[in-house]
Amino acid sequence: MGDTPLEQEVTGRWVVHNNYLELHFMQTQASVKAPAGRYEAIYLLGVDRESGQYQLHLFDALAWLPDSGAWKMLLGETDAPGHWHEFAVKFMRRRLAA
């Protein structure tokens, strides 16, 4: 990113009763090493039924942590003046079938 080209695989599908187009971005270029793992993002694109305006929800705070076999997710929100506030950090691991 920035001056470094970022190669990504992008897939799309309709979700939430076909109200949103989900676009999933995954870094594919092995030579670019992100500190917290490969870059990944999910965009949800939809239309506000009342205003007719497009909405874009961006979820890109996921990082793969290969040493622990987990995904790290930062959760936050923007307040009315536009300031970002982180309110949680989640670590997600695959649950093995019993």
Q: Could you give a short account of the major beta sheet? A: 6 strands, antiparallel
Mean pLDDT comes to 80
How many distinct helices? Answer: 0
What is the number of beta strands?
6
* SSE pattern: EEEEEE
User: Which regions contain 5 or more consecutive residues with pLDDT less than 50?
Assistant: none
| Spatial strand sequence of the major β-sheet | 1-2-3-4-5-6
Query: What's the overall geometry?
Result: globular
> Cα distance, first to last residue?
41 Å
Number of domains: 1
**Helical coverage, percent range:** under 10%
Strand content: over 45%
Q: What gyration radius follows from the Cα positions, in whole Å? A: 16 Å
What structural class do helix, strand and pairing data support? Answer: mainly beta
Structural summary, described in words:
Strand 3 (39-47) and strand 4 form a beta hairpin. This protein has one domain (8-93). It is built from no helices and 6 strands. Strands 1-2-3-4-5-6 form a 6-stranded antiparallel β-sheet, with no helix packed on it. Helix content is 0%, strand content 57%. It has strands at 8-15, 20-27, 39-47, 54-65, 70-78, 84-93. It is mostly beta strands and 98 residues long. The mean pLDDT is 80.
Which key phrases capture this entry?
98 residues, mainly beta, 57% strand, globular
Secondary structure elements and pairings:
Elements: E1 8-15, E2 20-27, E3 39-47, E4 54-65, E5 70-78, E6 84-93
Antiparallel strand pairs: 1-2, 2-3, 3-4, 4-5, 5-6
State the gist of this model.
The protein is mostly beta strands.
